[in-house]
Amino acid sequence: MKVLLVEDDKTIAAGLEYSLQQEGYDITICYDVACGKKQIEGKKFDLILLDVTLPDGSGYELCKMVRDRSDTPIIFLTACDDEVNVVMGLDMGADDYVTKPFRIRELVSRIKSVLRRYQKDDDSKSIIELGNIKINTLEAKVYKGGEEINLTALEYRLLLTFFNNMGQILTRNQLLESIWDVAGDFVNDNTLTVYIKRIREKIEDDPQNPKVIKTVRGLGYKAGD
Q1: Would you say 16 and 25 are in contact if contact means Cβ atoms under 8 Å apart?
Q2: pLDDT tens figures, 44-78
Q3: What domains, with CATH codes, occur in the chain?
Q4: What pLDDT digit, counting tens, does each position of 116-134 carry?
Q5: Average model confidence (pLDDT) for the chain?
């Protein structure tokens, strides 16, 4: 997985390079817009991380350049958390926006989340079904027996994680990683239990005897057989 990081703070860049390499990513680092342009023109990346404020320009400039060429996933890294800056970045086509200082684990989780969305798009898998439960990923809606179910954002992400890994046992740590709060607040183990209980109450015919999301004692949970 090839990642381009454009970040002028060399200390931050070095820390990110080490951490992302530990996750198996192949990192290319640039410290300014000029270098970023050369890399974008000459190579194909699976993900691009852009600092907004750079010594010779703006990450927005690079974002526009990428979007004119491809739909490569883009995440902004910036100390600017003003709503105007966030909206501007997202309107230009960025997929996510992480405010400094951030925790490495949070960034890794956000990266994986963005890449999963693109993987689902590549697979053209907009409808996922299990029993009488259907998820339309393009609309981010869930239906039970044809009727829409109202889920919170985190409940939806958690249910989608189960459906995207149908039949696979997922540990609690894997599930926690999948529903990292977009606000940056860590979702703890007790919270996970509450979310699974709430989802079961909404989608199961008998929440006390779940058929969609099953508990695998001592290992975790799984959807389907």
Answers
A1: no
A2: 999 999 998 899 999 999 999 998 888 899 999 87
A3: 2-121 (3.40.50.2300), 125-223 (1.10.10.10)
A4: 777 655 544 578 889 899 9
A5: 86
